[in-house]
Amino acid sequence: MAQISNTSNSLYNFIVRDGNGIKGLVDSGLLEVPKIYIQPINERINKLETKPCDMPPIDLSKLNGKEHEKVVNEIVRAAETLGFFQVVNHCVPLELLESVKDSAHAFFNMPPEKKVVYRQNVSTSLKMRYQTTFAPEIENVLEWKDYINMVYSSDEDALQYWPNECKDVALEYLKLSSKIVKVILEILIGKLGVELDDSKIESLIGLKMVNMNYYPACPNPELTVGVGRHSDAGTITVLLQDGIGGLYVKAEDENDVGKVEWLEIPPIPGALVINVGDALEILSNGKYKSSEHRVMTTSNQSRVSVPLFTLPKFTEKIGPLPELVKKDGLAGYREVLWKDYMDNFYGVAHEGKKTLNFAKINSS
Ligand code: OGA
Ligand code: NI
C-alpha cells in the first residue's frame, strides 16, 4: 500500500499539513470513517475478544506502613506479569488530575489556527509539538488521535514554550508524578538485587515528557484505532485517563499458555495507570515486561489521556544490568546508546513490540 503522505491527498493535507487534526475533520461534520483511517482487519479491536483487567489498584500510601513489603511485592509481581497496574493514594491531588484533563480539552478545543502555531514554530518544536497520529509521514493507515508533546528541560523553558492553556498544570503533574516513578523504579531495581546510586536512577528517568492525547468521537470505532499496538520506549510511564475507557493491554491467558488476550485497563476515578517501558525491560534483562497496548476509539464522546513518559537521557547506554546477566548467565539484549534506540523508535510506525528488536539478541 502506498504511504498516505506520498499521495496528493487533500484530506491528508487538511488533517496533517494544515494542522486541523482528526478533531478538525470530525468537527466539520463527518459521517463516515475516511479510507485513510480504516485499519486492516487484523489491527481492528474486537470488543468481544477483550475483557476487563480485574487487578485491584495498588494503594501506594501503604508503602509507609506495616504492609510495606506486601505492596512492594504487588508492584513487582505486576511489573513481571502484565507490565501494567493502577495506583491510588499516590499523592497527586485529585483536583490537579481534574485540572489536567480540563486543560487538555481546553487546548484541543481551540480553533485550528491557534494550535497550528505549535506545528510551524521551529524554535519551540523541541519543547512543544502539536501533532496528529503517531508518524504521518510513514504510516499506511492513520491513528484517530491528535496530541501534544511537551518535553521538560527546565521550569523556565516549560513556562515559556508550553501552551498557556495547560502549562501550569502539566508542569505540576510532571513533578508530582515523577516522584511516583522514582519510588516505583527504586522498588523494582531494588528487587532485582541491584544497587544503583541516586544519580544513576536519575539518569534512567532524566528525560521527561508529558503528552496530552485527544481522541475525538468516531463514527465507526470498530474500523479505527486511537493508538495502534505499541510498547512505550522509556523506563516507566504514568498515565492519567478519563472515565471513557478504551486502553487495552496484551496478555497471555493464565489458564491457556500461548493464548493471547487483550485486557482493558478500566478507568478508576482518581487512579493513575503505571506501565513498564522498553528501557526497563532491557535493564531488567526481560524480567519486567514492557507490554504491547493500544487504544480503541468511542462513538459518542471524545476521550483525553495524559501520559508522563520518563526515559533515559539520550547519552545513556542502556543494556541489561551486569549483575543480572551474571546471575541469569545470558544477556537477552545488547547495550544500546539511548539516542540510537529513540531514533529507531520514532522511525517506524507502530507495530507492537517490534521496536524492542533493535536491542534484542537473537531476535528474528
Ligand atoms: C501512549 C498510550 C494510552 C491511552 O500515549 O503511549 O499508550 O490510554 N496511550 O491514551
Ligand atoms: Ni503507550
Automatic annotation (TrEMBL):
A Gene Ontology biological process term: coumarin biosynthetic process
Keywords assigned: Dioxygenase, Iron, Metal-binding, Oxidoreductase
Domain Fe2OG dioxygenase, first and last residues per copy: 200-312
PROSITE patterns associated with the record: FE2OG_OXY
InterPro entries on file: DIOX_N, IPNS-like_FE2OG_OXY, IPNS-like_sf, Oxoglu/Fe-dep_dioxygenase_dom
Pfam families to which the protein is assigned, alphabetical: 2OG-FeII_Oxy, DIOX_N
UniProt key word Metal-binding: yes
Cofactor: L-ascorbate
Molecular function (Gene Ontology), one example: dioxygenase activity
Family stated for the protein in its record: Belongs to the iron/ascorbate-dependent oxidoreductase family.
Name of the protein: Putative oxoglutarate/iron-dependent dioxygenase, non-heme dioxygenase domain-containing protein
Protein species of origin: Medicago truncatula (Barrel medic)
Lineage per the UniProt record: Eukaryota, Viridiplantae, Streptophyta, Embryophyta, Tracheophyta
